[in-house]
Structure formats: structure tokens, C-alpha cells
């Protein structure tokens, strides 16, 4: 295993969720998934009811995870690209995943597991330890949309409760 692969696995172990990307009927899609790393490969848990596993099984996929929303001064992103296949996890792997969600989009959660055999791994790191990330200049923001104000966080804006609900609904896809 290369130094970059070892680093990527170590970083991936710091978070529980990421996104798997492939194509379905020639259209690209990205779906959230729960992951663990075992034997140098990524094992994903997804909700069978969404059908994303069918597009991934036997296909080349990219699985990425990051700490973008952690508030850390050192931001990282990892990506594992390789072939995915549906597998039955061992008892130890099931235990490593932890508890399953009760439901996904108001349907009972039914897990499906996929293993990614990585063909290549990438790690990207942004180091903001010398200071704060540079905020966009106020003149770069349009006053036409209420979310474009540089001091507002999108989920804190009083006019954007629909975004909260939409985000909440999409997060239900996470297994």
C-alpha cells in the first residue's frame, strides 16, 4: 500500500459518511452512504429501497468523504475509485457499522452492502492553520437573493426554511 493510500484510509476512518458516485441509465448521480474501511477496502451500507446499489454493483464508482463541515483548520478530502460489488458483511463488519437508521424517506431501512476494491486513491488537503479562510468580498455577492449575503449562513436565514426541510429530507437518504 502506498503512503497516500495509508493516509486516505486513516482520514476516512475519521468520518462515518461519504458519497458514492456512478451513473444510472447514462446519467451521473451521487448518493450518501455509511462506510467502514476493512482490509484496505471501503465497505458501504446503503438503503436497498432506493435502488442505487443496482447501478453500482459491478460498475466503477468513486467514493468520497471529507471533513468540510468540521470547522477544522486543516480540511481534507479523500476519494477511492474502483469496482463495487454487493457483499455480505461479516459479524465484525456489521458491528463496526453501528446501529442502522429506523427509516429512509419514511420507509423501513433495509441495508445493502457494497465493497469497493480501489484502483486508485486520492487525498487533497487544504491548510488554513496560518489564519482564517478568506471570505468573499461583499461586492461579489448579489443583493437579489437573500442567501447571498456574506454574513448569513444558508441554514440560518429566516427566509430559507424550505432549504432546511429539503436538506433534512435529503439527509434521510444517508444510511
Characterization of this structure:
With 175 residues, the chain is an alpha+beta fold. It is built from 4 helices and 8 strands; from the N terminus they run αβββαββαβββα. The strands form 2 sheets. Strands 1-2-3-8-5-4 form a 6-stranded antiparallel barrel. The protein is globular.
- With helices defined by DSSP (H or I, 4 residues minimum), what is the helix count? 4
Portion of residues within helices: 10-25%
Largest sheet: 6 strands, antiparallel, barrel
Amino-to-carboxy terminus distance: 29 Å
Report the principal-axis shape. Answer: globular
If strands are numbered along the chain, what order do they take across the biggest sheet? 1-2-3-8-5-4
Uncertain runs with pLDDT below 50, 5 residues or more?
136-175
Task: Please report the total strand number as a whole number.
Answer: 8
Order of helix and strand elements from N to C terminus:
HEEEHEEHEEEH
Alpha carbon gyration radius: 18 Å
Strand content: 35-45%
- The secondary structure category is alpha+beta
Q: How confident overall, as mean pLDDT? A: 79
Annotate the secondary structure layout.
Elements (H helix, E strand, L loop, with lengths): L2 H10 L4 E8 L2 E12 L2 E7 L4 H5 L3 E7 L7 E14 L3 H7 L5 E2 L2 E2 L2 E17 L33 H11 L4
Antiparallel strand pairs: 1-2, 1-4, 2-3, 3-8, 4-5, 5-8, 6-7
Descriptive key words:
disordered C terminus, 6-stranded antiparallel barrel, two-stranded antiparallel ribbon, about 180 residues, alpha+beta
Amino acid at each position: 500500500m502506498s503512503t497516500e493510500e495509508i493516509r486516505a484510509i486513516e482520514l476516512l476512518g475519521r468520518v462515518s459518511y461519504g458519497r458514492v458516485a456512478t451513473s444510472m441509465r447514462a446519467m451521473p448521480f451521487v448518493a450518501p452512504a455509511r462506510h467502514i474501511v476493512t482490509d484496505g477496502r471501503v465497505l458501504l451500507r446503503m438503503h436497498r429501497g432506493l435502488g442505487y446499489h443496482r447501478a453500482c454493483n459491478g460498475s466503477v464508482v468513486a467514493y468520497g468523504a471529507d471533513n468540510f463541515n468540521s470547522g477544522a483548520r486543516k480540511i481534507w478530502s479523500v476519494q477511492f475509485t474502483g469496482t463495487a460489488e454487493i457483499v455480505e458483511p461479516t459479524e465484525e463488519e456489521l458491528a463496526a457499522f453501528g446501529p442502522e437508521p429506523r427509516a429512509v424517506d419514511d420507509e423501513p431501512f433495509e441495508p445493502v452492502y457494497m465493497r469497493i476494491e480501489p484502483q486508485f486513491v486520492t487525498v487533497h488537503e487544504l491548510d488554513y492553520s496560518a489564519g482564517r479562510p478568506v471570505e468573499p468580498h461583499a461586492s461579489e455577492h448579489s443583493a437579489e437573493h437573500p442567501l447571498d449575503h456574506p454574513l448569513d449562513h444558508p441554514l440560518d436565514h429566516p427566509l430559507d426554511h424550505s432549504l432546511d426541510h429539503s436538506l433534512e429530507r435529503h439527509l434521510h437518504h444517508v444510511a
